[in-house]
Amino acid sequence: MSPGDEDANGLADCDDPSCSSICQQVCGNGVVDGAEQCDDGNQMDGDSCETNCTSPRCGNSIVDMGEMCDDGNGQIVDGCDRACAVSTITYMKASNTNASDRFGTRVALSADGQTLAVGAYQEGSFATGVGGNQADNTATNSGAVYVFTRTAAGWAQQGYLKASNTGIGDLFGWNLALSGNGNTLIVSSIGKGSSSGVNGSQLDDLLPSSGAAYVFTRTGTTWSQEAYLKATNPGANDFFGWSIALSADGATAALGALSEDSSATGVGGDGSNDLAANAGAVYVYVRSGGTWRPQAYVKASNTDAQDAFGASVALSGDGSTLAVGASAEASRATGVGGDQADNTMTLAGAVYTFTRSGAAWSQSSYIKASNTGASDGFGAAVALSGDGTTLVVGATGESSGVTGINGNELDNLATNSGAAYVFGLAGGTWSQRAYIKASNTGVSDLFGSSLAVSGDGNTVAISAIAEDSAATSVGGDQASNSAGNSGAVYLFERSVGVWRQRAYVKASNTGAGDRFGQSAAVAADGATMAVGAYFEASSATGVGGNQADNMAASAGAVYVYR
């Protein structure tokens, strides 16, 4: 043996290959033996090598060098995040806060969680384009969008965006979507009335509330408008842009017009008639070399008047899978692939999925709740994972009084409490995997109002905008009902196919009527979440302002959690 090695009667480290096989390796001898990852000889935790001679890592329940915390569970918004940093709540307001602006109507996060876009559809400035004058209020309800970015120093506003043809009542910022890298942003303006096509004249208002969408791109830190989109068959009061989804590369966009009136069915039908009032439609656009063009005009396979097809839309990361909610569809069917022909369950709702092969789209499934009920509004919100294999659907009018996961779906003891349904795709076929209720189900809470899902589909945020607890921040008392319509968000995580609730999230300044959860977004890794409360009333401006006053009714706020 080499000096320092021991025999069978002592403590042996066996760092020499010639050491007898009956010797034992020892963690803490300063030599990396056998299966050890490291050995610094001091057997201390929290340094460059742990007591058990494993390398430091986030998630080992030890606060290693460079970590702020490590609770070992990989959860978010529970005090210690997935990056082993202390969880934080950032409170964000517009740079020109005004009453009734409704900042936080919609939020979108880039995949890395470093870029945040916020819509305020009732903002009133008459500015146009990027970086204009925010101070006037002469264009009531014209709307605006605010872009924030995160650096090591924290969050800061990067852009103030308006339409290129700002008009009173246009509601710019009604909905929006960001690409994965945060460099492409699409914003809808459902009150816009122009009748032109892609990049056509923006000056007429011949079709009131036909709707329009604006594409913005970022180069460096500078935003500019790239395109102006209209439906291929614009009609008055169609509300084109009611819902928006964007692929990760920013090259495929889907826009819903829930009040479009054509009786066409399927993909590429005749959109020129108005024989099915408010049936709804979805329009797919693609970008190539900076130029946008329409790719598909999408209708339900069972188009009917008043179905509101396009109430919600979602795209997979590669843009090849599309989910569309029709929250007022009326079939009594349950599950996947049922009978679409009857209309005996008013406002039950349905979801349709479509897939793209090359440039051709086709419907791949017709999806209903497992407990279809009248006025459930299944499809009011939809979300897809990045790989397109996990689909989450909200039904704000569902009325079961149960709590938690996979409870009894059949009672109707809590009217409009709301529910969410998780579907999984395997072998080309969708099936329901979970039926999700809040942990504090309550009448008229509207659980399922907004949805957000991480890239891998393992983290889902579900809001209930009319939940009534006065709790604040994370993990508070869910039992009180002393702050009516304050709103809440519930975080669920999936592990080995099993779903469970991980966090109950409230605003840091919960107030009655704030509607926290009107919008929600999560980053691809699930480690950052943004939530809008569009009726929040503080008159603060910017990031980290005073949350305590209520001097600007319905100004709105956004909260970012890590």
Question: How would you describe this structure to a colleague?
Answer:
It is a single chain. The protein is mostly beta strands and 562 residues long. It has 2 domains: 1-46, no CATH class; 89-561, Integrin alpha, N-terminal (Methylamine Dehydrogenase, Chain H, 7 Propeller). The chain contains no helices and 28 strands. The protein has strands at residues 89-92, 103-109, 115-120, 144-151, 154-161, 172-178, 184-189, 212-219, 222-229, 240-246, 252-257, 281-288, 291-298, 309-315, 321-326, 350-357, 360-367, 378-384, 390-395, 419-426, 429-436, 447-453, 459-464, 488-495, 498-505, 516-522, 529-533, 557-561. The strands form 7 sheets. The protein has a 4-stranded antiparallel sheet, with no helix packed on it.
